[in-house]
Task: structure prediction
Amino acid sequence: MTSIMLAIARTVLRGVLPYPDPLRRVRVRRSARDVASRALWPQNEAAVTGLDYARLALLRLLWLQQQTRRAVRTGQRESAALVARTAMETCILGLWCLRDPDAVRKLRMSEVRAAPAMLTFLSITGILPQELIKQAIYALGEPEKLPDVRSMTSKIDAKTGATLAIHLYDLAYRPASQYFTHATSSALLRHVTTERRRTIRPSNPWVRRAPVRLADACVGLLAGAIANQVGASTELFAHYGEDHARRVLPPLLVTIGKAMVTTLSFADVLGLWRQALEVKKHLSRSRPDEAPAEREACLRALYDMVITRLDLDVPSEAIQPIIDYIVVKVLVQWDAEFVSRSSTPSGVGDVAEA
Result:
């Protein structure tokens, strides 16, 4: 129980507390610009490589990082989330360009696929017929759709053996798409208050600094990959990206936390705290083989009280498996701690406490 609470507390504090590193950010941006713009764009289109597109992606990412920070500073939280999501997508595309040997051709053919729709205004205004537009464009090659972002991310991690890209995708990109970009139920329900009133101002399911940290992590991730490709030092980029990635809070955790703040009163928190202490004492006094059903029932009563106080609008069938998992995990941890205490030589514990 203690380890679970400490893990959640560490995650929340890392995501909420300030993490100022302006000097390192200046160094990272300067080094990233150097890595991205070191070579001229090839005059011959046939000579363009995935590395060239990855460098362009890094330049765009540096711009998006700047715009995300500006949006956060000026209180434009919706814009900050949308720009940070775009930064994540740009980062994934750049990494994919480094890993897929056929990336350049696929990028060009995806442009061919999108061109007819972009030139539809010519047929609408009667300048050119739509069939003629398609015929002219398709002469450039067979149109092709780019892989989706998830497929790109999976290929990146499979090629590199790393997990940071997929981690950021699951942690931030998908939730940001769900809450901010697409017209989903989650996005629309942001306009319903905790009192079930409709409002024009949506709730913010992300903490203020999360978009900035996501953009910062993306810069470190892509710049490090390009630096590794060209044989430059990657240490600065790797540490920068990992440090900021650890401080990106998932939107769902923020949403639950805000719901708890508005739902639980001080008396509720105090009551839950007292109940938790009672459960802790009960578990500490009993042996693992003594009344296991009673110990489990005591722990379940605590979690049932938490769920009742939170008044979550979620079916019990969805919550029960989670409670079952946590109860089993907490009991296993307490049993392990009991065995550890029992194996401690007599008197050692007293000396440690003294």
